[in-house]
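comment on this one:
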Amino acid sequence: MTRRFALLTGVGGEGWIKAAKQRFGIDIAALTIGPSGCDAVNIYAGWYRASEIEEDGCILVRPDHHVAWRMQSDSAKAGAELAAVLARLLAVA
């Protein structure tokens, strides 16, 4: 079984999905949660209440299934923010 980081976002999190697909030297699974057409279906919007992020926010989950980082909403600098977080988590900064 491959262990990797997972980035979870909602229907408005295209910026985070794009950022997760950049080359950071690690494999990141990027998944959307929301209505039909997303990777995981969230019919009653319970995900947003439980996660405490907006539809365009994100949560980064470590390979050991612990939440490593959360961003309330989308950012114009998603790639730079995600790179900085990964650098801190992986102790390369």
Observations:
- The chain has one domain: 5-89.
- Residues 5-89 form a domain with the Glutaredoxin fold (CATH 3.40.30.120).
